[in-house]
Each structure stands twice: as C-alpha cells, then as structure tokens.
Amino acid sequence: MSDPRLQKMQKMAQRLHETGTVDVLTMRKIDALAMQDQLEVMSARQIKELRAKQGISQGVLAVALNMSAESVKKWEQGKSQPHGAALRLLKLIDRNGIAAVL
C-alpha cells in the first residue's frame, strides 16, 4: 500500500541529508510521512472485532482514542476509515489490549 513516489522522495532526501543539504528536522518529517503511508488500514470488520475482543463499547473505544463515538460508529459501518494517530492507537490496542492506552 506504500506509494512508490514517497519511497523515492524519502531515499532522495536521505542522500541529501547525508551531504548536509537536508537538515535533521526535515528528514524526520519525511520519515514520519513515509511511515504513516506504510500503515495498513483497518477494515470495518477488524474494528468491530477488536472492540468485541476487548469487550468495550463504541463509546469506551472513542474515549480511549480521544475521538467521538460517531467516528467509531462510521468506521464500523465502513463510511470512513481511521488514519493518523487514531489508526496507530487502534493497532496498539490490537497488539497490547485496551489497557495500553488507558
């Protein structure tokens, strides 16, 4: 799911960073963008299963993610998808349980 253009940009920036043309802060931002692009999406079914496995309501999951219950509902209905920090937290909950974020 990774965009090859972003990968090329990251490699080019790394070479420029090694020559001193790109500073550390800019390189970190580019690396973060590339990492975010590599996160796999979670389907509506996966989010429902995660919540069921943890034994929590949509409201509790929303609080844990600092999101609205309406957002969680839309994810589970397939009307939208989590991204950014919410997706990272969902992956963390999936790996380590809800206690990891509470």
CATH superfamily of the largest domain: lambda repressor-like DNA-binding domains
Which class do the helix and strand fractions yield? mainly alpha
- Which architecture of the largest domain would the CATH scheme give at its second level? Orthogonal Bundle
Task: Count all strands and give the number.
Answer: 0
Q: Please bin the fraction of helical residues.
A: 55-70%
Low-confidence stretches: none
The total tally of domains equals 2
Question: What integer is the average pLDDT?
Answer: 90
Discrete helix count: 6
Strand content: under 5%
> What form results from the Cα inertia axes?
elongated
Radius of gyration: 17 Å
Look at the structure and give the CATH class of the largest domain. Mainly Alpha
Distance between the ends: 30 Å
- Looking at CATH, which topology of the largest domain would you report? 434 Repressor (Amino-terminal Domain)
InterPro entries: Cro/C1-type_HTH, HTH-type_reg/antitoxin, Lambda_DNA-bd_dom_sf
Domain HTH cro/C1-type: 47-82
Protein name: Transcriptional regulator
GO molecular function, one term: DNA binding
In short:
This protein is mainly alpha-helical and 102 residues long.
Describe the protein:
By secondary structure, the protein is mainly alpha-helical. It has 2 domains: 4-38; 44-100, 434 Repressor (Amino-terminal Domain), CATH 1.10.260. 70% of the residues lie in helices and 0% in strands. It has helices at residues 4-18, 24-38, 44-54, 58-65, 69-77, 84-96. The longest helix is centred in the N-terminal third of the chain and has 15 residues, at 4-18. The mean pLDDT is 90.
